[in-house]
Amino acid sequence: MTVIPIQQLPQNEMLQFFKEHWGSTEMVISSGIYDCSQLDGFAYMDEQNKILGLVTYIIRPEECEIISLDSIVEEIGIGSLLVQAVERHALEQSCKMISLITTNDNLHALKFYQKRGYHLVEIIQNAVDQARTYKPEIPLIGNDGIPIRDEIRLAKQSGLS
Fold it and tell me: Is 0.85 surpassed by the pTM of this model?
């Protein structure tokens, strides 16, 4: 098992992964509209070269924003390894901050990132309603039956564990 830059993945496998796990390659969040298949990132591959996890990010001046993170197999460290790969790259790129946006229903992500040193820094009320005007297939109800309405931005200083 290994972590590789997503540029090393066959394009069709990456596209299939996004369609399977996100419905499309497009991510609509308050920081922008992204085609995840065109972003930098890392993939976690098993011994048969199957994608078990994938993270995408964008580098801005002094900040790295994680756009998507998916792990097919939970609780074995795939997400942690992928986030660590992004954090190392952000540090190499002189980013001072690493941030991400998740939705109010994604309690799993909120726990995951806070355990890794990320802080809640902003709640963007009704941001998902605005995203639905562009991407109407975003569900109204999310994890645990929670209505998906708001975005939560988390961040941590680069170089902190």
Answer: yes
Q: CB within 8 A of 65, min separation 6: which ones?
A: 31, 57, 58, 98, 99, 100, 101
Q: Kindly report, residue by residue over 92-119, the tens digit of the pLDDT.
A: 999 999 999 999 999 999 999 999 999 9
C-alpha span between 58 and 146 (Å, rounded): 29
Neighbouring-strand partners of residue 68: 56
Q: What is the pLDDT of residue 161?
A: 58
DSSP state of 38: G
Give CB contacts under 8 A, 24+ apart, made by 114-119. 114/154, 116/80, 116/83, 116/156, 117/156, 117/160, 117/161, 118/154, 118/155, 118/156, 119/154, 119/155, 119/156
Which amino acid type is present at position 141? I
Q: Tokens 């001046």: give the residue.
A: 61
